[in-house]
Every structure is written in C-alpha cells, then in structure tokens.
Amino acid sequence: xxxxxxxxxxxxxxxxxxxxxxxxxxxxxxxxxxxxxxxxxxxxxxxxxxxxxxxxxxxxxxxxxxxxxxxxxxxxxxxxxxxxxxxxxxxxxxxxxxxxxxxxxxxxxxxxxxxxxxxxxxxxxxxxxxxxxxxxxxxxxxxxxxxxxxxxxxxxxxxxxxxxxxxxxxxxxxxxxxxxxxxxxxxxxxxxxxxxxxxxxxxxxxxxxxxxxxxxxxxxxxxxxxxxxxxxxxxxxxxxxxxxxxxxxxxxxxxxxxxxxxxxxxxxxxxxxxxxxxxxxxxxxxxxxxxxxxxxxxxxxxxxxxxxxxxxxxxxxxxxxxxxxxxxxxxxxxxxxxxxxxxxxxxxxxxxxxxxxxxxxxxxxxxxxxxxxxxxxxxxxxxxxxxxxxxxxxxxxxxxxx
Length: 402
Known about the structure:
Blueprint: E1 17-22, H1 37-40, H2 44-52, E2 54-59, H3 69-77, H4 88-95, E3 105-114, E4 120-122, H5 130-140, E5 149-156, E6 159-165, H6 196-213, E7 221-228, H7 236-240, E8 244-247, H8 251-259, E9 263-264, H9 272-281, E10 288-293, H10 295-301, H11 305-323, E11 329-333, E12 350-355, H12 370-374, E13 379-382, H13 386-393
Helix pairs in contact: 4-8, 9-11, 10-11
C-alpha cells in the first residue's frame, strides 16, 4: 500500500486540498538560452502564488526516466508506479465506464491511416474528430470471437478502448503500435508463454477489425497499446482518509482517478473555467480535488510552442475562480514534461508550485517557471512526495514517533 507509514499519522481536519495538474507542463527553450513555454507565458496569478508560496521540481519516476501519463499520475497520487504497474488499457476503459474485472484484458486503441501497402502513414488517423470516430467504433462492436466476450467503447477523437473477457486470459502482451510511420502495425505478441492464447485472440480481433475498416479514408487501420487487467488499488479514503473528487475532461485521467477511488465529477465543457466551475459546484462535498488540464500536453506533442503558451495563459486567467473558493492548499504542477521542441514526453523535472497561506515557507522566487523552480525552496524531489506535502500543509498529519 502506498505511504503505509502515513496511516498512523493521519489527523482529521476541516481543510481543502487542490491538486491541479497541467499535463506535460514542463518544457524546453526552442533555442539555447531562450525561454521555456511556461517562462514565456504571461502568468501574473501563478507568479503571485509563486511569490507567496514555495517552488520546486519533481521527478515523476526516477531521474532520467521518461514517464507515460498513467504512471506519472499514479506517482502524484502517491502510488509508486514501479510497484503499481497499470496498463493504459485499464485506465482508458475505466475512464469511459467500461468495466474491467480481474481476469479481463483491456487495451487502448488508436485508429491510424494505412497506405495501400499496409504501412502506417498517420499514427492518429489525422486526429479524426469524435463525431466521425463514433460510428467507426460502433462498427467494431459487431466483431465476434468464439468463446470470448469483447466490448468496445469510444474514448475521444481517434482513441477507443476494447475489453476481452473469458477464461485464462493474460495481459502480458506487447503493444501493436510500432511508434513510427512507414511500417505496418505489429501483431499482438505474448511477452510470456501464458499469454500466447490471449495474443492469438487479439490478433483474430485485429484481423476482423482491419477487414471492417478498409473502406475508411482516415481510420482504415488500428493499433492497440497498454494491455492490462484490473489493478486492485487501495483507495484514497483507505490511504489518506480523503473524500476525493476528480475534475477532468479526458477519459484516461478520469479512469486513473476512479481506480484510486475518487468520485469523477460530470460536467460540460473543456475550458479551465468549466473545470473550476465544476469544482465549485461540489466544493462542500469533498476535501480533495484533482483538476486535470489536458491541452498543455497536446500542444507539446504537436510541437506548437505558442499554442502551449496560450493554454498556460488561459489557465492563469481562470485562476481567480479557483482562488475564490479559498483552498487551504493549492498545488500546481504537471505529470511530466512535454517540450514542444521534442514533440513528446521527456525525462526533464517538472515545475511544482505549493501555495498554502497558513503553512508555506516562502522562498525568494517570484515567477513560476523552470529556472525558478530549479532554485526553489522545495528543491528537486520525487513526485511520490506530493501527497505527504499536501497533507502536511493541510494540517492532516501528526508527529512521527515520540
């Protein structure tokens, strides 16, 4: 169980904690010596919080290790991703309400575009919009595999989730996404002998799916990633004594939150204002709030420096709505870095801002950015320490030892 030593230290308190994760927040300058996306953004509200609070930077997994979004969020939630290894399939499926029981195998699917030779020319099918993707996903529901139950559900845009149910299934299967263009999708391959039958079943399903998709212009192929089963994680209530809520528009992050026992709040819209308003609507019902901002990561993966700057600035403009609720502890950070210069996740430490008016020890930094965070009073630390820091500043932890 994560942070087992904390259980004996937990104190009830009438305090509120907000953890706001701007996905892929960390960045790099486009040119050596230049500004990162966060440093280039006009963020007067975050800069004020930085002045009043304490800065630092986190390593999501271990120094030098590039994390996926699932493991990076687990670390922020206090679950060591090297102990709790959860595949993206279980996260995506849970995020769209697709049940994954013990013994089931779930995978995240990406539609892709294939050329006449069957090679991938676009790994995301031109980011096919949701209204176009839904009927394509619906067509996959007609695939049947003898002796096996399969369920498919759309996630968002070009992404979907598939769950296979039956006897003797194993999630130890390699991804079919080669992570590059100009080559065909890979077959599902077993990582160990016990998974060979499951891999063959998924290959049957993939073959039937490609036959159905061949007439599509964009989504005429697919890849599967993150094969997984139910992880059996202890809940936030068990571990931290917190009644936690998740405010996220993207299904995967709703999924990882539900797997740790957070209540996923339904709301309309995708803007920071929409998310802060959703939090305000349930403010009296919870004492911990996880807010997820997706588009910082999307712009980073697209290589859109100015777009990522704009997303950060939009969050800053909306912050007064959040601050009006007067949280006792507010943490602003990312799950990992996604520099637009690299167009992908990276191993770089992630900026971290802790604001807690009653308990924070201010450092001498006055701007929220990578260089300031590297000099901040919290130093460089593991993302696993996020929850103990949050609990301590919310006066929810007692003394350890006599």
